[in-house]
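ARCHIVE RECORD
Type: protein–small molecule complex
Small molecule: 16G
Source of inputs: curated submission
Record status: active
Notes field left blank by submitter.
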Amino acid sequence: MEDEHALYRPEAWYRAARGPRYEQLYRHLAAAIAAGELPPETQLPPERELALIADVSRVTVRKAVSQLVADGVLDQRRGAGTFVQAARPKMEHSLSALLSFTEYMRQRGKTSSSRILRRGLFLPTPDEMMALGLSAGERVARVERLRFADDTPLAIEWSSLPTDILPDPEAVETSLYDVLRSLGTAPTRAVQRITAVNLTGLDARHLMLAEGAAVLRIDRTAYVPSGRPIEFTRGLYRSDIYDFIAELRLDSP
Ligand code: 16G
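STRUCTURE (tokenized, with ligand):
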């Protein structure tokens, strides 16, 4: 008989030294939902049962599930249980989860791709030196990309990283975070600043919008657990296509 819980068992998602369990479980469920393995309206096993099947604590299950609820992919219905949400028409980009562009798009059932505009090692600008704590004589690794969801250009991203973190910018083909993960230096925390700006010249052409169209500009500084900043990315995101959602909580006293 087929194991109806195979998807939740640790062999399906847990790998030693690949980060905290709740994060691995979260990514696994998000990918399963995006891939349709858990179709809309599927009910998840109750927390206690899921913890037993996945062989983790209830706290771990709760953290993974509440993040998926915050991302809008799971729905917790009082007294009824937790269900996979139906796909939404506009892409909502949660600000509370530290995901990469590739992962966000996968979660939304989209295929992401990038066109590399420029990448290499350069002398840092004052902004890069400030954000990444570099000195004037050092180099900085830069990757500039036009990013697509299915075939639609959604964003332009200019990413800068210290060269000891990303020694070879040419290694970034699809996902920067996948490269960082394989090097063991993926960020675990980020701070973002969001501004509305109007598009000019070449950026407008890249995004296939009129000059002057309003887009969101997001500057992300991302950190590794030691507190060291390792990524500064400025991105322009088409606001007609995506919404950034932020979940706010009242801190308990
Ligand atoms: C997201 C990040 C960006 C990061 C990129 C990595 C925002 C606002 N920005 O777009 O800072 O560099 O993901 O994506 O979310 P990748 O791993 O697909 O290259």
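CURATOR ANNOTATION: Residues 21-34 form the longest helix (14 residues).
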